[in-house]
Amino acid sequence: MVTLRRVFRRLESVRVGVIGDFIYDTYTTGKVGRISPEAPVPVLHVIREEGRPGGAGNVVLNLVSLGAQVFAIGRIGPDIAGSSLKHLLSTEGVDVSGIIVQQAYQTPVKNRLIADAQQVLRVDFEQVESIPESVEQEVIKLLPHLLEQIDILAISDYAKGFLSPSLLSAVIEMAQEREIPVIVDPKGDDFSLYHGATVLKPNLQEAYAAAKLSKATPLEQVAEALFKKAHVEMLMITRSEAGISLFTRSGSRFDFPVQSKEVTDVTGAGDTVLAVLVFALGNGLEVQEATELANMAAGIAIERLGCARIDLSDLATRLLESDVENKVFHEDHLFALQQALKGKDYTVLGISGKDGMTTPLFRSIRKLSQKDTKLILYVKEPSVDEEFVPLLSSLADVDFVILQCESLKHLCETIHPSEVFVMEGESLVSLGDFKVLLGG
């Protein structure tokens, strides 16, 4: 099981390139109260409509939510959907200089009709069109500059015609020359197109189809066949309710059971897996750790309606449910802690570890936990009691414990709490306007 302490200390912002098929997802949400008099179909009374980047765009959004710096490479049409998609990505801080406008091309649109939190129909507007050679060459000319700016590359193939064999070959070869890992979410049954990639991530159905084997064939034989066809370093097969299976070229297999409380909507779960996998590998995590983290993220995503955006706060919350020691951070965790606390109010209590757990400290923790904020304990000196920190982390009133930080001032400058308190002897003391602390 992945622990927050081991994984999060290694998570920082990473530069990711995402190349693939960008789709504009729209959601038409309403209520069904009657049957149409024109035909035996329900009438959807629309309450709201919204649009989001889909396809490779959903991978991008998940990466942004994790704290990555993202460079997008793809195509759109000269239409409202395309300009809306590009604008939405740009407002998220994504570098969209690699998004090419192809004349006479229609940006793919998927409109999901939703009633009472259930998708009742999807209407697609799209034309599967091979990329013209002129556009392909334009993209290839952009690749060297874009690849110089990234640490890892994600290929999100939705089989809309953008990722031609020659474009795939060029981008993978250029990435290999620069020792940039390439993680591929494939489509179709010809995995030789992704020759030389680092990790190939098909779902179970795609894996059997590409291996040209029956469903009765053991998964190990399927993996062996795919390695021969694709010549990738690792193979990750997502298996829906059965979780994820990871295979290496040496023949090793690692299984990760699904971790979900309930299944609401599987839309976009594959994109979530790709994004978290890329983010984790880009930060130098071992592939088994990255896969377990991605599997956990997928479990969270399918509990939500539509294409969900998973961030480090979501992962931290789920990890904390499995192990209270995951609450403990050190100074080199602060990037991940900031991501975990994003959008939340929190209070910091500075304490000394020398005295251990005293009655006044316990009462102060209980008092502050009544506030409608997260409670973070900053331990400024190590405790002689080895059980002190585990005891703090076991308290339901405590959300996080920070150790070995430079100073309380440095912590507050980094995470910007709502309020700051300290223990002075047996008394709980408010620092009032903690901005005074930061200025001092």
Note down, in words, how this protein is organized:
The protein is α/β, with parallel strands linked by helices. It folds into two domains: 4-310, UDP-N-acetylmuramoyl-L-alanine:D-glutamate ligase, CATH 3.40.1190.20; 326-439, Rossmann fold, CATH 3.40.50. The chain has 15 helices and 19 strands. The longest helix has 15 residues, at 133-147.
Q: What is the domain total for the residues? A: 2
Considering the protein shown, what is the CATH homologous superfamily of the largest domain?
Ribokinase
Q: List low-confidence stretches.
A: 436-440
How would you sum up the major sheet? 9 strands, mixed
Q: Report the mean per-residue pLDDT as an integer.
A: 88
Approximately what portion of the residues adopt beta-strand conformation?
A: 25-35%
Query: Rg to the nearest angstrom?
Result: 24 Å
Q: What structural class should be given to the helix and strand makeup?
A: alpha/beta
The CATH class assignment of the largest domain is: Alpha Beta
CATH topology assignment of the largest domain: UDP-N-acetylmuramoyl-L-alanine:D-glutamate ligase
Q: How many strand elements?
A: 19
Distance between the termini: 43 Å
Output the strand order for the largest sheet.
5-4-1-8-9-10-11-12-13
- From the structure provided, what is the oligomeric state, counting identical versus distinct chains? single chain
Counting DSSP H or I runs of 4 or more residues, the number of helices is 15
Question: How much helicity do the residues have?
Answer: 25-40%
**Which term fits the overall shape?**
globular
Q: Report the CATH architecture of the largest domain.
A: 3-Layer(aba) Sandwich
